[in-house]
Write a structure and sequence with these properties.
With 428 residues, this protein is an alpha+beta fold. The protein has helices at 93-97, 166-172, 177-185, 189-198, 201-208, 213-222, 225-234, 237-244, 249-258, 261-271, 278-281, 295-302, 309-312, 335-340, 364-374, 394-401, 409-413; strands at residues 6-8, 16-18, 24-34, 43-50, 56-60, 64-68, 71-74, 77-80, 90-92, 101-104, 109-119, 125-134, 145-149, 153-154, 288-289, 314-318, 329-334, 378-382, 388-393, 420-423. InterPro entries: CBS_dom, CBS_dom_sf, Mg_transptr_MgtE_intracell_dom, MgtE_N_sf, MgtE_transporter, SH3_actinomycetes.
Length: 428
Amino acid sequence: MSTPNRVYIARLAGVAVFDPNGDQVGRIRDAVARVRPTQRPPEVVGLVAEMPMRRRIFLSINRITSIDPDAVVLGSGTLNLRRFEKRPNELLVLQELLDRRVQLDTGQAGSVVDVAMERSRGGEWALTRVAVREQTSRLARRGHLHQVEWDRVRGLGGIADNRGTANLLAVLEDMRPADLANALQDLPDARRNEVAAALDDERLADVLGELPEHDQVEILAALDRERAADVLEEMDPDDAADLLNELPPPEQDVLLDLMEPDEATPVRQLLRYASGTAGSVMTSEPVILPPDATVAEALARIREPQLSPAVAAQIFVTRAPLTTPTGRYLGMVHFQALLREPPADLLGGIVVNDIDPLRPTTPLPEITRRMATYDLVAMPVVDRSMRLVGAVTVDDVLDHSLPRDWRDRDAMAAAPAADEETLDGGNG
């Protein structure tokens, strides 16, 4: 593979990184440029790649053998696995320059939509060209796109003020919620809050569930209360309850009152349970069907795309009503059992009820032991009248069993990790 002499960096975001043997080691998230004291454009010194477990590392530009729209390939040698930390004289191109308000030397105002790095004859990479879209009135069509030399753009240095978010969001839009949450933690607080606020309610709800509690609270506080309530409505009730538990009770009450009653009711119920119990970690919206529902109906229900894999893995069978707290709990059916039965058969004929359900007060260690003992991905939670009030899924257990700060990038940075990995391309 050959490397072009000019590469637009936003197009590299998300591109897979491969070692010399063809094994994927991560994905590109940004480029690192060193600001020079002269008027020369910043020198590109490397790329930032995201590895498994959300660890971001630095890839020296000299260690990269090829760059194309589909892959970045590393040469043989040693890969430094220490977590990337930006130095004072460096800038992260996508994080710091996209959407920046600038001015062309013609006087035309605009915003940065991409930046190109270019390789000189001596092999040095530098930021040489900037794609700038003209600023227009809201009623006008999108402004003209200019691709100009770096030194023809004013405002690329210093602290950005009053930036938009459209171009950075375009780079981030294909990320999984957990990866997007990780990217937000890399941004300065003000920028993080701007980008989060620009997400639609459903996307922001998914991302909030992947952030550490202090970031969740700060982002929610930066929204107006009506928007915050809308986002809470889009979250799973257990995630919304966890987030509200981080707020003072008066603020909890304000946001709950702003939510639609049907959305607020299950969250209020979850907030009543003591921390570390089944009631506090369960979801109040598992898949529930009556015993006279057919296998075909159950399979159609668990195919719904908004269901997480853990929630969709089993059907809970109850008498009416079918919303928590339900009628009497009868048992559950795993999706594998559904695949083995004729579509017209009734759930009541294949329901399993030989495992005692949890109580809302069951402590987390006991839940973990029982789920491990029976190899379950979810367990029912019932009240004293044997009505189903929710279900604890394996992701709930993991989330609450890990250290409280496991999603926090600062805490992860302090965790020990191997500093190096040898890449062998077979060339010695």
